[in-house]
Design goal:
Layout: H1 8-26, H2 28-31, H3 37-57, H4 62-88
């Protein structure tokens, strides 16, 4: 792969995730009813931004958008971990 060339798989992932984003935005009120749904949705938004930065980084300001991409993946992962803990971490405990 040459410099400044977006890989097809990166663009395809971003396009599919944009379709999912559209669904999430349309169904946002229903999805927020999930346990800790706001945390889950915010995690997805960060992952979506990271996938977008992956595509953008090949066009210009590569290093800057690469840092933003990985920052979004980190925050998204922490949010999904927090959501998992909030939803599944309490199971098996007697209150």
């Amino acid at each position: 792969m040459g410099a400044n060339v977006t890989e097809e798989k990166e663009l395809i992932i971003f396009l599919f995730s944009t379709g999912v984003l559209f669904f999430v935005l349309v169904q946002r009120s229903q999805l927020r009813r999930l346990p800790a749904g706001t945390i889950l949705l915010t995690g997805f938004y960060f992952f979506w931004a990271g996938w977008g930065f992956t595509v953008i980084e090949d066009l210009f300001w590569g290093t800057f958008f690469n840092y933003l991409e990985h920052f979004c993946y980190m925050v998204g992962s922490l949010l999904i971990a927090a959501w998992s803990w909030a939803v599944f971490g309490r199971r098996g405990r007697s209150s």
